[in-house]
Amino acid sequence: MIFFGKPADRTYYRWQELAFKSMKYCTLIAILLIAASQIGCLSRNALSKADKLADDKDYYGAIEAYQNIIDMQPGTPDALEAQLAIGKLSIDRMNQPAEGIKAYEGVIAAAPESEKAAEAHYELGLHYYKEKNFKSAQTHFDAIVNNFSHLELSHNAHLMLARSYEGAAEYESAVEAFDSFANRNPRNKRAAPALEHKARIQRQFLKDEEEAKRTNQMLVKRYGKVEGAEDTVEKAKQELKDLNATIPEPVDPLATPEGRALAQLEERRERDRPRGGVERSPAMGSATSFGIPDSGFGISAAEVMQNFGGQAGIAGDEQGSYQDAELMIANFLYGDESYRDAGALFFDAIARSEAEKVKIDPYAYLSLSICYRKVGMHQRAKEVLRKAASRDGEVIEAVINTGRNHYTSENYESAIETYNSVIGLRRDKDSEVYWLISLAHKKLSEPEKEREALERSVAANTQNTDALQSLAEVLHYRLKERKAAAIFQDIIDQESDSYIGAKTLGDLTYKYGNYVQANTRYKTAARIAKRLLDKSESDAEKRALRNQVVHATILAARANHRRGKPEDAQQMMDELATEYPDHALIHYGNGVLALLNEDTETAVAEFKTAIEKAPHSDIAVIALGDYYVSQGFNDDAIALWEGFLAENQYNQNVTRSLKNLKGDSEETEETEETEETKE
Fold first, then answer.
1. How far is 95 from 621, CA to CA, in rounded Å?
2. What's the angle, vertex CA 71, arms to CA 66 and CA 73, rounded to 5?
3. Mind listing the pLDDT tens digit for each residue in 585-599?
4. Beta partners for residue 278, in sequence order
5. Of 40, 212, 321, 632, whose CA is between 20 and 30 Å from 22?
6. Do residues 335 and 383 make contact, with C-beta atoms less than 8 angstroms apart?
7. pTM here?
8. Calpha distance 616→589 (Å, rounded)
9. Angle at CA 62, nearest 5°, toward 108 and 49?
10. CA-CA distance, 455 to 434, in Å (whole number)?
């Protein structure tokens, strides 16, 4: 458009043009809004129609209608809602669990951080719980507890997590989960019953009457004057009478100004909570103005600090910063086992210090991590220490020193808990920490747990002589496995460069996932056997040494495959087959690699061929039986092993495997070598 005339006229026409364009844009926006509204209405209508079909028991019609919504509006909230509906319909009404699981997993994959994903996790958890697949149920309930703590649904998931542990007979974990629920929700009406369940498991299943007494006493003390907890408290009192224990006086939660303020706060939050199952995180209040995210504890630091004067009353304190005051109060609450409130303060103090780039006591990170564990949020507990350790090398040492202090004070359970919190954060420290854990288990007279900790220590560092010596001692003196103990003692004393010593270390490192070291140790074992083979003049000895060379090389190839080098593993097997083309164990090795490649048909065939060619060797027999067990074919494994023992009745390895499978409590005293020397 070309303008002629005075500048004022041009300005006038310019405004007209702008006004005209503005009208066009407004019209376009209005059209888009109307279209969006219509689409939303259509989507809601489609969901309603699909729901109606489901209510009328036209399940396949409902599934089709829901799927149309998903196909037409992929990734939208309505599509996720439709996918959830398919999952629920498939499992609850159509008895098609595989389809339901697929639908729920699709929601989680499409929007892993959404509230719909939390619902999908919960429904999957319930399904697996009902099917008594408690491990899978735990995975989904735990995901909600750790990743969706701001949702009301997480409280239900927390209790279901505890029940899943109990269903799986993991009673110590169940006790911890019920306890962490009460710590996380101290004023929730279900907190007292959670402690009741904790005490019941301690007495009934763990046979720990002292801890059951302590839990019931804590229940009476905390909830004895809380309205609505009367029945639970009376049961706890009766338990204490049965145990001839002291019944404490209840603490009145409204006896102090702080208690009354917290009660009013909880009442207000309950009144204001959205009814849709989602609770706004109270930590999204003043803290977010400083860029501090939600802590996950369900209460903000500001709300906790209000009971101690708030920021206005503390900010001007010349004795230190506001976060110093938060840390002081957090430590007080921590000592009083108020882990939820203490955690909120530790989180806020750390976040403020990091934002201001001010160094903070590394023990604050440890305390925050423990608070997370005490309220059941183990993933966040680990993440806190991981991030802290990456920023401050003193954090790991602070944790280890805290564990040592617990150990010195004879608080061995707390020492173990503290040490476990840093496992995996610094690989070079893992061996030392596992050894320290073993010392605590030794004090608690738990030789099996002591052995496991020591095995993990050696697997992390095969040069840790303290761990090797301790492992030899627990095997010899407390577990009475003297042959195994002698092997480790020989390794320590370095009296012989033995095949069995190298292979034992290979087995141990492989067992705990250190495949690089396992590969090295197995290769060492093969070299030792090969060196002896070249010098041997006895036919029987040569046969046994050849078996050792082949077996150790196969195990090295397996370790190579597990460390992500399948081509190298196959090359090792090809070279071995060229050197020992007629050896029966070559078929066993082919079966091992086929199984790792998920070619189960080939694996089973190769194992069977190995058994046919060497009917007195237990190596392939055990491998094939273990595969059957892993697939749930226990009867096939039993038949295989019983058939082998009919011809090889003195074989201790197969006898032990058979007894373990049948649940036989009788154990052989010593750990025998494999039959590779007897072919």
1. 39
2. 95
3. 999 999 999 999 999
4. 151
5. 40
6. no
7. 0.71
8. 17
9. 105
10. 9
